[in-house]
Specification:
The complex is a heterodimer of chains A (about 300) and B (about 250). Chain A is α/β, with parallel strands linked by helices and about 300 residues long. Chain A is built from eleven helices and 15 strands. Chain B is about 80% helix and about 0% strand. In chain B, helix 4 (about 55-80) packs parallel to helix 7, helix 4 (about 55-80) runs antiparallel to helix 8 and helix 7 runs parallel beside helix 12. Classes of the chains: A alpha/beta (about 300), B mainly alpha (about 250).
Chain lengths: ~300, ~250
């Protein structure tokens, strides 16, 4: 698998506070990488390091195979766009003027692509309206358009739906999916709004207290979170035989419990188990949300 | 760096602040003539460029004001977060700082040219006799004044690199300059070698009696002092900016 970003024991300390404490993460090319963590977990700090806004205390990272200590990291960064916390825009300028400024910074002499970009983010009819008069959703979309100037193939979005109304959230989500599918842009999206992230992400990185707790693909997370029937029996070997005969998917957790990923006829199950001298002690339906899964990973205690 | 300069020039040219600065400079330049003309009797032109010259005195305040405007313009990049875009797209911090240095030095030259042009044009238009003016001396002293203004710009750049917040940077910039006032007065009135040396860093001290028409003592030394101080400010600005954690 090809990776656009790899971090190696990345640390960032502010005096006595360890914002990042040995982060190791890998972002596959073409993925939408959901970067999940509580407020203060270290998401934004990591993004700032990758974007070159801050220097790591120790550790390193590779962007498109170029180390952050390499002189050519600037060249790699040219392939990347980012919206860190809030969109970086001049409020006194119009959407078009902000994009022209960005084009000049990139040294693109032809402004022909600006109208396409504005159309892409649905801001082609804003005319002479200044950014300061834009809604939060419009600003967010313009921020993404600015990050897209220069045909970037990696976009980093830090909390892109924070503060947006439902309509704005849908607009941003559709835009991200469109860009990922049509332009094959890799996304790193940090968020603590997990329900929304689960509609987009193909890969996840769970961060807590400055460490990556776990990295998983969306399939793995889905499998961990999917609806199941948790059963408790006296003999899981017998249960496995019965479920195999019923052609049902399951996982055996231990000697007495198992998860069945289907809805068996309970009477049939009980009789079949009885034939094998096994008793069904209890059964309960469970469906773990991404939120629940995250809490189970990092622990649910409230921290100050 | 050319891309940074190109983008920034377009932004500065579109900024209202630049035109407010130039308008005030033109007003100061022109108003200096009328203010002193009222007091002068016969040869007001020579009087204007020789003694009690308001244009020189006002240049000091204008330099301070221009520095403040630069802080507002540069700090707006920090407050809007646009500085992040520059770094994310791979521009080096040193290049960003140098692009500001180039642009705001150009703004200073433009601003100074407006003050002096407004002054001399108004002087000529008022029918004053300029024959008694020593052109070489006036040009030399104007160049020193320009270096003095550039020094203010470099100081404002340093302030932005330390305090990226607009309000804090402007307040600290003004307060720091005000605390220099006693030093200026001391260096202007003192006669020792040390005070004379210090006077070269300040307007009041290096041009005799605020006169544009009188030769300055060792102008090369004054120019060197101002250039070295500007470089020191720039060096410190680079050191701060290089290590600055941006949000």
């Amino acid at each position: 698998m090809e990776y656009v970003l790899k971090t190696n024991s990345l640390c960032k300390h502010y005096k006595n506070f360890k914002a990042l404490n040995g982060v190791n993460m890998t972002v596959p090319k073409g993925s939408i990488y959901g970067f999940v963590g509580r407020n203060g977990a270290g998401k934004t700090t990591l993004i700032r390091l990758i974007c070159g806004l801050q220097e790591p205390t120790s550790g390193d990272f590779e962007l498109y195979g170029v180390k952050n200590s390499d002189e050519n990291i600037s060249r790699s960064r040219r392939r990347m766009g980012a919206v860190v916390e809030s969109p970086s825009l001049f409020p006194e300028m119009t959407a078009g003027e902000n994009l022209r400024y960005q084009y000049r910074l990139l040294g693109i002499p032809d402004f022909g692509g600006i109208s396409d970009l504005l159309k892409l983010v649905g801001l082609d009819k804003t005319g002479t309206k200044k950014v300061k008069d834009f809604s939060l959703g419009m600003r967010q979309r313009l921020g993404i358009a600015v990050a897209l100037c220069g045909d970037q193939d990696l976009l980093i979005l830090d909390e892109p739906i924070n503060g947006l109304d439902p309509q704005g959230i849908i607009e941003v989500r559709e835009l991200i999916l469109k860009l990922n599918q049509e332009r094959k842009i890799t996304f790193i999206i940090s968020s603590h709004i997990l329900d929304e992230l689960s509609k987009l992400a193909t890969h996840y990185g769970f961060i807590d207290s400055g460490r990556i707790v776990r990295e998983m693909s969306a399939e793995e997370v889905e499998s961990a979170c999917r609806k199941s029937l948790k059963v408790s029996v006296t003999d899981t070997a017998a249960l496995a035989n019965v479920l195999d005969a019923m052609d049902m998917e399951y996982t055996i957790n231990d000697d007495t419990t198992a998860d069945i990923y289907a809805r068996p006829n309970i009477s049939e199950l009980v009789f079949a188990l009885a034939d094998k001298n096994c008793q069904l002690i209890s059964c309960s339906e469970c469906e773990e949300t991404l939120e629940g899964f995250f809490i189970s990973l990092v622990g649910g205690e409230v921290r100050e | 760096m050319s891309k940074l300069i190109h983008a920034e020039i377009h932004r500065v040219l579109k900024s209202k602040l630049l035109y407010i600065l130039l308008f005030i400079s033109a007003f100061i330049g022109a108003a200096s003539v009328f203010t002193v003309s009222l007091e002068a009797d016969e040869n007001s032109a020579v009087f204007l460029v020789t003694s009690g010259n308001l244009v020189m005195f006002m240049t000091m305040f204008q330099a301070l004001f221009a520095g403040g405007i630069s802080i507002l313009l540069i700090a707006s990049e920090f407050s809007s977060g646009v500085i992040r875009n520059k770094l994310i797209m791979g521009h080096k911090r040193r290049d960003i700082l140098l692009s500001w240095t180039v642009i705001y030095t150009i703004v200073t030259i433009l601003d100074f040219a407006v003050i002096i042009a407004a002054f001399f044009i108004t002087l000529a238009a008022s029918g004053a006799d300029l024959s008694g003016v020593d052109a070489e001396c006036v040009i030399g002293n104007n160049l020193l004044l320009l270096l003095f203004m550039v020094k203010f710009q470099m100081f404002s750049l340093l302030m932005v690199c330390i305090y990226s917040d607009q309000k804090t940077a402007v307040i600290v910039y003004l307060l720091s300059n005000m605390t220099m006032l006693p030093i200026i007065l001391l260096s202007y009135s003192g006669n020792s070698g040390l005070t004379q040396f210090f006077s070269r860093f300040f307007l009041g001290g290096f041009v005799n009696n605020f006169s544009l028409n009188e030769k300055t003592d060792k102008p090369w030394l004054t120019a060197l002092c101002l250039i070295l101080l500007s470089i020191l400010y720039l060096y410190l600005a680079n050191a701060y900016f290089k290590k600055k954690d941006l949000k």
